[in-house]
Prior knowledge:
The chain has one domain (46-290): Alpha/Beta hydrolase fold, catalytic domain (Rossmann fold, 3-Layer(aba) Sandwich), CATH 3.40.50.1820. 29% of the residues lie in helices and 24% in strands. The protein is built from eight helices and ten strands. Strand 5 (147-157), helix 4 and strand 6 (181-185) form a beta-alpha-beta unit. Helix 3 (131-144) crosses helix 4 (159-175). The longest helix has 17 residues, at 159-175. The protein is globular and about 50 Å long.
Amino acid sequence: MKHTQRTLSFHFGVPGCILGILCMVLVSCPFIDREYDPFFLDEDRPYFEYNAASDYYYCLPWNYSREWNSRREYPLVIFLHGSGGAGNISYLNYLGYQDPDSTYINQIAYNFQTTHPSFVLIPQTAGSWNNQILMSEIESFKAAYRINEQRIYVIGYSMGGSGSYSLANAYCDDNGSLFAGIVRLAGQSQISVRDAIAEHTAVWMHTGLEDEAIRITTTREAYDFLKNHPVNLHAEESVAVYDVNGKSVATKTLTRGKNEVAKISEYADTGHGIVMLPAQDPEIMEWLFEQQIVY
């Protein structure tokens, strides 16, 4: 599941002639990794757009339309919001949200877009998640853009945390498709996953120890399900204790071979509001983007 994505940035103010030379060099030199981006220009920066017909927000990868990227496939990150979270994506700077009317550069958003160029899809719902609608949106999005189908990720918070498992199971049942990685934040239902998901999808689940007991218990049971799954019979478990944003966190990691296939992080003195964890702990996004489906 490991994948290393590297980024080289010359940033802004590159003269047109030099820009052209850089493009020719990058296209003509076979030894240059196609995952490199030689520059990220202000005028090319993508911003989130809203698709009213399908009721989702989306953002393209920075440099997606550049000619030297015309054959490149990008990861896709899907974010499932919690109950009552529809209509607001302004807090998702760790997925590249930047106010298009602001001259202030949000550094977290900038770092995400330049370090992990990717598609971001944020479906919306005023009620509960509908897997058929979600899968239809995902398939339509995949058909419209150059997406690396081995690197599709889901981040879900609260209702979306539970929804990440529900969607993964439905997606597997519907057409055998799998997500490469799931970051599950404060989910309160859905403990088990299909065998293929347990084998191929990496999961990192998070819970605050001052949250409601059902969310803590459900998260632990979801981790135990993966730990006790036959595919992980010979997996090794490790434990680490450290601080995130001034709060103590204990993380168990289940490693099969060289791959971290399941992780659970429990945050002391923390309740339900952990939706910003991927911004507070950069290891979460780094871990997620290392994942890819390997059969």
